[in-house]
Specification:
single chain; 203 residues; alpha/beta; 8 helices; 5 strands; globular
Length: 203
């Protein structure tokens, strides 16, 4: 599988600056949803580049500075837990991705977006784009964006672990693990918990 197929197709259609976009943290009970947008030089070889979910934390951390260094431009953005609760997670994901695209200094004229959705109730991808299911495994620039989004979010959650040590965010990064549920039952939610994600939680 050519990881550059979709970027090449966009270039053949006349698009000069193509970014890949992905988000991380749609499922956790706590913390923001992060997104990243990345413009890579066409055909840039970054050994080990893959969907962030298929990589170990150590590998993602190693690729993080390499992607930033090799990219023509990159940007990361987030939408807070509070905003997720006020809207909905799909809208928050779309808003985070569009914010990341808007944050690029080199304005892209086309975006490759991971997944099959490009709009929620209150936010949408507004740039010309193509949605690609499992894009983080099929497109080099989406894979790069998935790694930047995941690592940025993980770093944020480790910072939150220092602020709210009783929740052990460094261990589970806000995901609904057995440990996290046990700590929630003991301490109740903190300011970065998504209240709408806790409604069905066992007491």
């Amino acid at each position: 599988m050519d990881l550059w197929q979709y970027e090449k197709e966009a270039a053949a259609e006349g698009y000069a600056a193509v970014c890949g976009c992905d988000e991380a943290g749609a499922g956790p009970l706590a913390g923001p949803v992060y997104a990243a947008a990345v413009i890579l030089p066409l055909g840039e070889d970054i050994p080990g580049l893959d969907d962030s979910k298929k990589l170990t934390e150590k590998r993602r951390e190693a690729l993080f500075p390499v992607i930033q260094e090799r990219a023509l431009d990159w940007s990361a953005a987030f939408v807070s837990a509070e905003e997720i609760d006020k809207t909905d997670i799909l809208s928050a994901r779309m808003r985070a991705m569009q914010l990341a695209i808007d944050g690029l200094s080199r304005k892209p004229d086309f975006a490759l977006v991971d997944g099959n959705r490009d709009h929620g109730r209150s936010a949408a991808i507004t740039i010309s784009h193509r949605c690609i299911v499992k894009g983080d495994s099929l497109s080099a620039s989406i894979a790069a964006a998935s790694i930047l989004a995941k690592v940025r979010r993980d770093h944020f959650m480790v910072e939150m672990a220092a602020k709210y040590p009783e929740y052990r965010f460094d261990r589970h990064k806000g995901y609904g693990t057995k440990l996290h549920y046990a700590l929630l039952r003991e301490y109740g939610p903190c300011p970065i918990h998504r209240r709408t994600f806790l409604k069905g939680m066992a007491p």
